[in-house]
Design a protein that fits this description.
InterPro entries: ATPase_AAA_core, P-loop_NTPase, RecF-like. Helices cover 27% and strands 28% of the residues. It is an alpha+beta fold and 373 residues long. 42% of the residues are buried.
Length: 373
């Protein structure tokens, strides 16, 4: 079973997002002013991935705990103080609910983030078919041949069924969802200081996909050169941004390195000497033009540190990447949004706040946008 695309996302009670459900396409661009909550959309997807990695409760704890990331606005009397996240992947729908423990009945540390519920449904047919349901420590699952079983080992409040139950032969859909979410990539303003991993050589290891911190950027470039033996899209993107310049890539058996030749200077600039903006742009190229793109790539304000002249070349690269992967972008750059309209036909969704709630202009309760059929 291949990795399914994201068809919809649901978020409830997470930071400034009170309740939101939306359909997802190949290239999803969100634009808004600072403080509207666009980064919270990005962070909610990062948090959802942590369920597949088995770290979701730890991630919330490291972010200050449930009370810090919970929707802080008004709630109805009977509303539970819980965060709910959902990802529809093709015809599979995964949901997870996080909350605080009942101090009397729940086996958890005081004020610890708990996994309250998890659910996996198959959405084909007239009614969803429940493939996995977890409430507290108990989990029931439906096997590949339709048998309903109960998971023998009770889960701790900090564990997810998605990460903990690993039996692809009996529960193939659970395996697909875990693998798909685990492969997602999030790129948020790469470090470009003098100690940045981008400025250091990479291990001499074939690297098909850029890591989230960009520490293997040189190896990603070397993989394109030595394994794919096609660096034309990469050289084209470099020349488009820096006319007359060319990327030099070296894999010497000990490590991988890159440098940039420019028409003004008679020696190449190694990564440690490149400007912050140049290095940031090259890192984005590594993430978007790599040998193997993950099924889903999210970029948070990719325009950070970039000169305005680099936004159109970046938009062209994003348009190319959207043919190989689903792309999710949050930005406050009107210029980048305009270039994405021109080169990818992707019209940005406007994010705004209404009474403290993050909203998306034109989004209907069904998840579609006004004007879509």
């Amino acid at each position: 079973m291949g990795l399914p695309p994201v068809s919809a996302i649901g978020i409830e009670n997470y930071r400034s997002v009170r309740s939101l459900f939306m359909r997802v396409g190949a290239l999803n661009v969100f634009i808004g002013k600072n403080g509207t909550g666009k980064t919270n959309l990005y962070k909610s997807l990062e948090l959802l991935q942590q369920a597949a990695l088995g770290r979701i409760t730890r991630a919330v704890s490291e972010d200050g705990g449930v009370e810090s990331v919970m929707w802080a606005g008004g709630r109805k009397v009977h509303d539970k103080a819980q965060i709910r996240l959902r990802a529809d992947l093709g015809d599979l729908s995964y949901k997870i609910t996080l909350g605080l423990p009942n101090p009397i009945s729940d086996p958890a540390l005081p004020l610890e983030t708990m996994v309250k519920e998890e659910e996996l449904n198959l959405l084909t047919g007239r009614r969803p078919v429940c493939l996995m349901q977890r409430k507290g420590p108990s989990v029931f699952l439906r096997t590949a041949d339709g048998e309903r079983v109960t998971y023998d080992n009770e889960l701790l409040s900090s564990e997810t069924a998605l990460a903990h139950i690993r039996d692809g032969a009996r529960f193939p859909e659970l395996d697909v969802v875990r693998h798909t979410l685990s492969e997602w990539r999030f790129y948020h303003s790469f470090r470009t200081d003098k100690d940045s991993p981008l400025r250091r050589p990479s291990a001499n290891v074939t690297t098909p996909t850029l890591s989230s911190d960009g520490c293997d950027l040189a190896a990603v470039f070397a993989t394109l050169k030595e394994i794919r033996q096609d660096v034309h899209p990469l050289h084209e993107a470099v020349a488009d941004a820096f006319p007359g310049s060319r990327l030099q890539i070296e894999a010497n058996g000990q490590d991988c390195r890159f440098s940039l030749e420019t028409p003004e200077i008679h020696r190449p600039f190694p990564a440690r000497e490149l400007s912050d903006g140049t290095l940031q742009y090259l890192a984005l190229l590594g993430g978007l033009l790599s040998y193997r793109l993950p099924a889903f790539v999210a970029l948070n304000e990719p325009e950070t540190s970039l000169h305005p002249d680099l936004l159109e070349p970046l938009a062209k690269v994003i348009a190319q990447a959207a043919n190989r992967s689903q792309i999710w972008i949050v930005t406050h750059s009107e210029a980048l949004a305009e270039h994405l309209i021109d080169h990818a036909g992707a019209y940005p969704r406007r994010i705004y706040k209404d009474e403290g709630q993050t909203q998306i202009d034109g989004l209907k309760v069904t998840g579609e946008f006004i004007g879509e059929t």
